[in-house]
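Quick start: read one record
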Amino acid sequence: MVLTDLYPRLAAIESPADLRRLPKFELPPLAEEIRSYLIESVAQSGGHLAAGLGAVELTIALHHVFNTPEDRLVWDVGHQSYPHKILTGRRDKLATIRTRDGLAPFPKRTESNFDAFGVGHAGTSISAALGMAIAAEREGRKRKAVAIIGDGALTAGMAFEALNHAGELHTNLLVVLNDNEMSISRNIGYFAKVFSMRAYSNVRAGSKKVLERMPSVRKLARRAEEHVKGLVAPPSILFEELGFNYIGPIDGHDLSLLITTLSNLKTLDGPQFLHVVTRKGKGFSPAESDPVKFHGIGPFDAKTGVEAKKSAGITYTDVFGEWICDMARRDERLIAITPAMKEGSGLQRFAEEFPERHFDVGIAEQHAVTLGAGLACEGLKPVIAIYSTFLQRGYDQVIHDIALQNLPVLFAIDRAGLVGPDGPTHAGGFDLSFLRCVPNLVLMAPADENECHQMLSTGFSLDQPSAIRYPRDKGPGVPIEQGTEQGMATLPIGKAKIRRQGQDVALLAFGSMVTPCLEVADRIDATVVNMRFINPLDEEMVLRIAAEHTLLVTVEENAIAGGAGSSINECLLANGLTVRIINHGLSDPFLPHGTRQDVLKEAGLDAEGILRVVSGLNG
């Protein structure tokens, strides 16, 4: 069936200019068409669904009121941007989102001129939009800049740094808080508390400025329960003290109210803050009842919401989730910390079993790291579960607060290497490079599930910082050896292991690359060394292998520059050895999205790609 049969209004929208020509009474039915189209499309490809469903009316209102792309819309993180993509010329490609050569999972400047800023990490929108507003002011242009941020992303310290700066500058900037009371995990922080406080008896001055342009306050008051959940809510204190004219909260699904409010705000000078309340997953009951599951989901049945069956096997995340619960039973000192990644990092079961020992700090990676440092100072054993790409934000704290003081904090680094559908914003291609140079920190990469379990136990047993990095993937299927009453199995620090003895060529593999290297080695009779440790490096093994082989190839799922292979080079150079060596890894860590297998293949990190490298050098 053609698009015009099911979605007649949506079929006529090729750009926001078409949207702005629609009469207002056509907008609510258009919202319902977009919502249905969004469900149908994401059901095919999988993706971030619940946030977008809740932002449909807000997206329509923003594009209806503002002259995009001349006016700049900056979406924080971008989980809620699918309706934006639908309305900005990418409607027919939405079912390709996150797939190879399909739409990017987040706003991307090279994909559309309506994507004013490329995003993926939380807390960046206000800073970026403020920069755009300052630029417009310097150019003497009337162009507007709008940052749309969720209540989860507003827990990021960077967002408040930007708010503080914007209020001081008095630049024309609009910040829209899309408050769905739900970040990826349960929302942590300020808003959950202030909403329960007693509202002020007097209407704030900022609200008066907008309301005087609207229907009478008396008429609005009669609709308050339906539309306006306290025009004078306590958050106004915070944002007005920061220098913003605070409006809200208002119903984020009332298109008429949204358009009127945004139109009025558009005419005001200085920093403006609009607080809208939406429902995550709105219009699709499975997503409304389980917004965490539908935050990011694989292909599913568009009618029932039942997700397609996944292949058998356990992921490295599953291994961590099992390990931390078992270790917590053995050692009461264990404390788990995560920056808003409880489900993604495998901590959900731990949080249920040990709620008093689980700390979700919100999107505050720097705080998560230093919180762990403080706990460690007092004799506790913190485990920080974090994605590789998010640990980048806490790098200074890793060095200054943990490594410098040699504190026993364990980092369980998920999503290391290539992540596939989420693309380069979420790929962890740099952690081996930026961590291996940090003094005191033991850095490990497991080749399989059992080794991951052993490395976690090893790191936890140390009286110094440690980190284990593993991919967003299943392992090769190696059963986990159960621990004894005396403790879980650990590994000797800094010791590699020869997995296969061969001739001439030696593949020195790190973590996830051991399995494809073994496949290659069987075809060319090469030696494979599972290096296990990046820091400290098994120099004795490296020197032995170099003496016995004519060609060394290091293989890692990390940036080549400064990565694990570089540590091998340094070892050989320091010991005066000359041997043919090639470092193979991510020559371009910013590879596009697709399945993890597709992206690994493009990077040459599958068996065939590794074989091409070895054959080219050994031919």
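The chain is about 40% helix and 15% strand.
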